[in-house]
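Reminder: ligand-aware prediction takes two inputs, not one.
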Amino acid sequence: MDGSGGLGRGRLICLSNRIPTGAEPSGGLVVALADVLERSGGIWIGAAPETTDQPEDDLTEIEGGAFRRLAFRLTAAEQEGYYAGFSNSVLWPVFHDRADLMEFRREDHETYRAVNRRIARIVAKVLRREDRIWIHDYHLLPLAAELRRLGVENPIGFFLHTPFPTALALQSMPQGNEICGWLMAHDLVGLQAQRDCVHARGALTRLAGAEELEEGLYALDGRRMRLAAFPIGIDTADFTRLAGQAFDRLPPGIVKPPRQLMIGVDRLDYSKGLPNRFRAFRHFLDLQEDWHRRVSLLQIAPPTREGVKAYDDIREELEGLAGKVNGAFADITWTPIRYIHRPVPRETLAGLYRASHIALVTPLMDGMNLVAKEFVAAQDPEDPGVLILSRFAGAAEQMPEALIVNPHDEGEIAAQILTALTMPRSERRRRHAALMEGLGAQDVHWWSDAFLTALTGASAARVGR
Ligand code: ADP
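Here is what comes back for the chain with adenosine-5'-diphosphate:
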């Protein structure tokens, strides 16, 4: 790696469904790319949060910020079919192994294709010959193929932030194998974990008939595409600093020794395994009467994608479960589950992680899971908390020193809660130090650097430079 962010000659053009508006605190992705965008005179292109009445092919400049941001606007119907419909009611469930929750509508699929075609036209207008393009996530899977159709031969990379489904799961969605053709239009496809690369190999070779020329290099219909895992990281050093500051500013009484705090932080999504987490905690309380009043679970789960039925259902299920657990166990001085259904400022979150003895990160399926990494980065190295992590989070491949659990096995989670509560400080420090080493080496800057360097290599091989 050359440490230059793979900075080539041209600009970096970044594309994602939503454009960072600057209104919300910057996520890791924005921080990771800001530097290379700034230095290359690059541009971030994405959908504006507000919709428009008439489809328009113009880009609006969003003022302020260190790099250029250009927004396109979608109509309400496009937003519904492309975003709520195909992206979040077909691709999201199928990619998270929940084809049972898929709501496939042919019109949504058409809208998804049409929106990507339109975005390709818009992007092609601002492209220069030397530019490199980096497309993010499942909303924009066909975009590179549409760009190629328009004759764009610039280097194009794609990063999938979700898991990649097995060939079998992909077949549960109508026209599932067209996704393989879309992938082949890129020079480089980045996935979160090795398991995703295995799944993608199955889909590409068995469903689409692509040939694997060497490990991770695929050929189909005269195109070559390189595919590899680039596990996304966090801005580790920055998060550790933030947590230290925020901890000192937490309101008093958040943790009252000797009571221990367990924390869960997730978007309210069925992939996050929240009901099984609550049931596992109830199971723990059933078994461990000694721990009553000495441990509580703080679950922060802000709503997302409201109006999509599966999300309304999970909300109801979880509120019911929290009520039942509290009904069964709470007394006047102790509420076992505190359930907060709204976003919390990033800083407060960092302080809460540091105040917690245990993080319960138990998704049924997750591309990476950044909460696991944030929790570890936020700990006091002298007296760190313990991470309980689902084997189905991409992060599990990089974090073997966490207590790894099967999120479907409530008995195992309950047993590991006890292990974590009683773990000697020396062992906590040893595990934390090992985890921090990984988080320091593979932070979000490493991630963007590694991806862009590989993109430069892959596209140079294609054009024979
Ligand atoms: P996903 O991308 O599926 O939501 P991740 O765990 O990878 O899951 O990333 C979630 C990000 O959102 C983390 O950076 C986390 O800090 C943030 N986040 C999650 N819940 C909240 C909340 N209640 N308030 C503020 N930020 C949150």
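The chain is about 45% helix and 15% strand. The chain has two domains: 12-233+444-464, 236-441. We will return to this case in the review session.
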